[in-house]
Amino acid sequence: MTAWVRRGFLTLVPLAIACAVLVANPASAAADPNGPKGPKGGGGPGGSVQVDFTGLTDKPSNSLVTIIALTLISLLPAILLTCTSFTKVVVVLGLTRNALGLQQTPNNQVLAGLALFLSLFIMSPVLSDMNDNAVQPYLDGTLSASQAFDAGLQPLRGFMLDNADDDELSLLTNVADRKLPNDRNDVPTTTLIPAFVLSELKDAFIIGFIIFIPFLVIDIVVSGALMSLGMMMMPPVMVSLPFKLLLFVLVDGWGLVIKSVVESYGTG
Questions:
Q1: In DSSP terms, which residues pair with 38 in a beta bridge?
Q2: Which of 124, 219, 234, 262 has the most other CB atoms within 10 Å of its CB?
């Protein structure tokens, strides 16, 4: 009996001490419904995670500028092909290579690189206007994102309107079942872009046709000479290619082609 009482007493002593502690500090026994807090409370750095797009001033934050830059980089190939002079330049250079009878010389990478830098040269006034009227005011905080987009689009629309033919504008407007505006400046951008691309392709083919004529004459003369000499088994292309290259170098062919393309935009 004595041993049983002693064991019961030893068991009740820790329970009594625990009850005394809980009564003295009841707040510690309640569970926090909000969960753990940061090192400086609920408003501390560990309490929440926020991304600020506005910065400390009216200027856009670095996060927003980075997001916009990445978006523009992803859209750059489409913009380059449809809204700049790149398409016309690269098509003219490709037709020039075909007129010479060359298959892959210069290769596509060289032609694309040359077309890219020629496009930057042609588009430099437009890019300068976009930077002055849209990019810099937006970075300074004087324009909102939508205002900067509209301001930057106007120089590009002006360039496309100057180089888009009325026939293509009318064609695409009729295809879209819309009424042709009285003022060209009122043409929607979704109609202007394909009209500009079609106009660029048409002009490029016209320039390519003019380039083909002298080389076609050389092919005809060489073919006639080989026929008269009875050398029908010899490919005329092998014989005419040196004469084509010689003529192209003597008249400074690359310079003439590039000059004609650049001057077609009123540049240079």
A1: 41
A2: 219
Residue 88 and residue 205 in contact, taking contact as beta carbons nearer than 8 Å: no
Model confidence pLDDT, tens digit, residues 155-183: 999 999 999 888 898 898 888 888 878 88
- Give the three-state DSSP class for 41: strand
- 256 and 154 in contact (C-beta within 8 Å)? no
Which is nearest to 216 in space by CA: 202, 187, 236?
Answer: 236
Question: How far are the Cα atoms of 40, 92, 102, 220, 256 from residue 209, in angstroms, in the given order?
Answer: 75, 10, 17, 16, 14
| pLDDT tens digits for range 185-236 | 888 888 899 999 999 999 999 999 999 999 999 989 988 888 888 877 778 7
Helix segments in 25-85, DSSP class H: 62-82
This prediction's pTM: 0.71
DSSP for residue 56: S
